[in-house]
Amino acid sequence: MLETVAQAVINGLLIGGIYALVSIGVTLIFGVVKIVNFAQGEFVMIGMYISFYLATQFGIDPIVSLVVSMPVLFVIGVLVQHFLIRRVLGPNDMPQIFLTFALSLLLLNLALMLFTANYRTVHTSYSDEAFHLAGLYIPVAKLIAFVVAMGLSAALWVFLHTTDLGKAMRAAAQNRDVATLMGINPNRVFCVALGVALALAGAAGSLLMPFYSAYPFVGQVFVLMAFVAVVLGTLGNVMGALIASLMMGIAESLGIQFVGADSGLIVVFAMLLLTLAFKPNGLGGGRVR
Amino acid sequence: MAGINKWKLMSLAALAAVVLVLPQVVKSSFAIDIFIRILLFSFIGVAWNLMGGYAKQLSLGHAAYFGLGAYTSTIMQVDFGISPWIGMVAGGIVAMLASLPIGWLCFRLRGPYFTIATIATAQALMLIFLKFRDFAWGAEGTTIPNLGSSPLMMQFEAKASYYYVVLGLLVLGLAITQRIERSWMGYYLVAIGEDEDAAEAIGVNAPRIKRDIYMISAFLTALAGTFYVQYIYFIDPATAFNFNISIEAALVSIVGGIGTLWGPVIGTVLLETTSALLQSWLGSSTGGVQLTVYALILMAVILWRPTGLIGIVTDAYQRHVNRKPARA
């Protein structure tokens, strides 16, 4: 019994690392640019297809293809900010919500037309490998994904706290007007925020590829999880999103283990509803907006 | 000013005449099917627009009420033999009651997170209906017994009859919208939509107004759900709680003109006509194509005409009636 619980916790923690990459992106964009990117999941999907094609066409390992998917998505992020989101920033919610929603709809359906609804998988030498540790089963592919995800999260934290650009981003998140007065160019900061957030989504896609199938709707699973984690971790809070994502992964895994194989999503919804009912400001408190 | 009213009245009378005789003139079943879709989604858009358009509570979870309406009337009909006409009203009431706890949860968040909460609650409802096969047939769904011609059970032999039923619903929705638009409630809704905090500061009871308009919006959306399953004679959770219904409800309003009486109708005419044309050009494999085109239209409207297409129509109308340049 204890072993089953421990195994479920490990499984959840490992996938929670991927959720964290997606949630950190969502919360970073929300914190800095003050919009919710409904298309974040579709960028995970794009990352997956990039790795899939690099693996099948050129035999590049999906994890190595991070070095392609992250820069490509960074550039896409800058373009999305500069040509789309910049034009709808303002006090009105409607254009912001429905612009990124339209982008999500567009990317998803383009993928459906270009790649069909088929599931695509990449089989690597380590896809079926696993460590056995004290009776626990630790799949290598998921462990690599988790370690790289945590490494990238740490790198982001260092970037936000030590570099000028990172500090400018945090300043813009705290108070856009004052930051502008201090000589910070908001559009430049927003472009970097979108770029970094999308690069993290792309990394999530590449890291998933050795053990997860790519298909046009794949992003929806992750974005839903990310939205819950972002609310739970207090909107705009990077560390909160990270911790909440790991908790969500564990909760989902325990749900699958003890409620039923297809109940992961129900557990996620239940967590969202409980969060809304009792902790709408996130577990850490803070202000809603 | 009397001149404008005369023009308005004449245009409305002309529109009513065309809409009423349309199914008598056009006999193609394909065309009538498209007309019915246009009227149905106009009606759903009108229901969404009451809350999403005037109060700017941007829900993407109206499929929840569509599905509840569809399931309530179908369960009453299949299990108890009760007429869908009664089931339709019962479904509306169920949806109204369901909107209370759902609204209680979702209204705790504002802006985009309200939108996400509505998506999640609608999806959760679909999962519940997928799980509970004992009382709602689970994932397989069920067909609705075909009784041939039975107007009392909302079943007709001629497609034109369905057309008039859904036309009636749309007229009801538009009449309710117009009444609300001109009442104190309409002003409160617009105030909440403009700035909720400011509205509360001048004494608008925002939580109550939002709750009330959500109930009305849910009630009307549920009527559409009942009509739809009666029209297609089939129900399952994927049809009744389809996310695309939530999307289209919002899309037609935004494309047509958010927070306006006729916006959802104009938006639906454009989107559904586009969809029908795509379907006839490309055959049946239009799943991805249709929504790709919808997404492009939505992006274009948001970037270049955030007030919706109705702006173009009213500008032209103003120019024609007043013979003076339209205001920017």
Structural write-up:
The complex is a heterodimer of chains A (289) and B (328). Chain A has eleven helices and two strands; from the N terminus they run ααααββααααααα. Chain A is mainly alpha-helical. A two-stranded antiparallel ribbon of chain A has the order 1-2. Chain A is globular and about 60 Å long. Chain B has helices at residues 2-25, 29-54, 63-80, 84-106, 112-131, 133-136, 159-181, 184-194, 196-201, 206-232, 237-240, 243-256, 263-282, 287-304, 310-322; strands spanning 142-143, 234-235. In chain B, strands 1-2 form a two-stranded antiparallel ribbon. In chain B, helix 4 packs antiparallel against helix 10 (206-232) and helix 8 (184-194) crosses helix 10. The mean pLDDT of chain B is 88. The A-B interface holds A 35-36, 38, 84, 87-88, 92-99, 101-103, 105-106, 108-110, 112-113, 224, 227-228, 231, 235, 265-266, 269-270, 272-273, 276-277, 280, 288-289 and B 56, 58, 60, 105-106, 108-113, 115-117, 119-121, 123-124, 127, 131, 247, 250, 254, 258, 287-292, 294-296, 298-299, 302-303, 306.
